[in-house]
Specification:
By secondary structure, the chain is mostly helical. The chain is 66% helix and 0% strand. The chain folds into 3 domains: 1-139, no CATH class; 148-241, no CATH class; 350-447, no CATH class.
Length: 447
């Protein structure tokens, strides 16, 4: 369509919107009713009982039309401004006003994007950022952002819209991803941190299923700088795809054959993403098929992804098997999160008893036994009785039990039960010191 044809069409639409609103309002006034039907006749957008907000010069719920309609047409680009200003002078409910605003802005943005965006930001007619405020108007820019995503991006980055820029970014991501997902991915690093992950995932999902876009997206990922900071972008992108355990075998084969470092990184994150919903046994079996180099890197990828929480013990076993003890020490939060909704707390405690006797593992040990002691005290006692006598770990379990007995349960009998079974003098002395501190705070005598 030629430029003059588009302008003629959009100007006509704006006039139509203004006239439709005027006719609806006139009919309401003639009928004597205070409820004005919404534009388009959709009662869901402004039904009976919705009051007309008060604004200077117009009483609440007024059903009287203004003496004369506001001018809705001027010359050239001002036609949209005229239609926009005309809406402000009408006696409309919030829903009716919103519907008409979106209609004008949608056409306006296709001709003058910046002008429409500024008008939306200036909208304070009904106040707030919810219904009747600026937020609900963002959908009006979907078509323009899809048609001209790069122009919209340049405008958002220019700073000309001031602080209001941030209100448009989420809509830009959603709209631009539909037509230019590769571009959205390429600029994701320039987005605010809170929007970055969503933008990458939305762009990746939009590209999949279209061979040309998928190829461009993978090439764009491959072109990322070979730096650790960009590995997170790659992981986010592949975690946006549906999990597929069936693809794991193929990906592990491609990993074995890969020679390019960037290709290895991409395949590794795709491999990790494909297995993100796998059970511990499947995860461990597929990991075992990798080369020693890739096993080490895959363990880290699992730790930093959903599997780090979903199957924390299995992932920690991988890290320990590849001598990544610094990462083992730092994985306490994942283990705690894993245990939060765990049903079989005894199984976790038994896994904890198999941890190597190293300082890094000792940090995790307490986190493996606390869930059982805290949630199933009787089951914990039964399990403790089954542990071999004289085991240093058994005394540490008993010490944890004493702390729960006095500080969580205020139960001296349970405390005494655990102390009587301790064989290490130092551990027993530490438990008695804890008791003395607890007893003094409660006004009791120490042991």
């Amino acid at each position: 369509m030629k430029t003059w044809q588009r302008r003629a069409l959009t100007h006509a639409v704006c006039l139509g919107i203004g006239l439709a609103g005027a006719v609806a309002l006139k009919q309401a006034a003639n009928s004597g009713g205070q409820d004005v039907p919404p534009a388009g006749g959709n009662a869901a957008h402004g039904g009976k009982g919705e009051s007309i907000p008060d604004r200077p010069g117009r009483p609440v719920g007024a059903d009287v039309l203004s003496k004369g309609p506001a001018t809705t047409t001027t010359t050239g680009g001002n036609d949209f401004r005229g239609a926009w200003d005309a809406i402000a002078s009408r006696n409309l409910t919030v829903s009716q006003r919103l519907e008409m605003q979106i209609g004008v802005l949608r056409e306006w943005a296709m001709v003058d994007m910046e002008g429409a965006m500024r008008a939306a930001l200036d909208n304070a007619w009904d106040g707030g950022t919810q219904k009747g405020g600026v937020g609900p108007l963002m959908v009006a820019f979907d078509e323009a952002f899809r048609a001209r995503p790069m122009d919209a991006w340049d405008l958002l980055q220019s700073g000309r819209l001031g602080l209001g820029t941030e209100l448009f970014r989420q809509q830009w991501i959603a709209s631009a991803s539909k037509t230019e997902p590769v571009f959205v991915f390429s600029v994701a690093k320039e987005l605010p941190y809170a929007l970055r992950m969503g933008a990458i995932q939305m762009a990746m999902r939009a590209a999949m299923g279209n061979p040309e876009l998928e190829d461009r997206m993978r090439r764009k990922i491959a072109d990322l700088p070979d730096e650790p900071g960009y590995d997170n972008y790659i992981a986010i992108a592949f975690n946006a795809l549906p999990p597929s355990e069936e693809n794991a075998a193929e990906l592990s084969g491609r990993l074995a054959a890969a020679t390019n470092e960037r290709a290895k990184t991409m395949l590794l994150h795709e491999f990790s993403a494909a297995l993100r919903e796998a059970g511990a046994a499947t995860l461990s079996a597929e990991w075992a098929k990798l080369s020693p180099e890739m096993q080490k890197r895959a363990a880290v990828a699992f730790l930093n992804g959903p599997q780090g929480t979903k199957n924390a013990p299995a992932v920690l076993d991988m890290l320990m098997a590849t001598d990544q003890w610094d990462r083992v020490t730092a994985a306490g939060n994942q283990l705690t999160e894993y245990s939060r909704n765990l049903q079989d707390t005894k199984q976790l405690a038994e896994w904890g008893m198999t941890l190597p006797e190293r300082p890094e593992a000792e940090y995790l040990f307490r986190r493996t036994i606390d869930p059982l002691i805290n949630r199933d005290n009787a089951g914990a006692r039964e399990w403790i009785e089954s542990l071999p006598a004289g085991s240093p770990r058994k005394d540490r379990v008993l010490f944890a039990y004493t702390q729960n007995a006095i500080y969580a349960r205020n139960d001296e009998a349970l405390f005494q039960w655990a102390v009587e079974r301790m064989t290490d003098p130092d551990t027993k002395a530490a438990a008695l010191r804890s008791y003395d501190g607890w007893a003094k705070r409660r006004g009791l005598g120490g042991k």
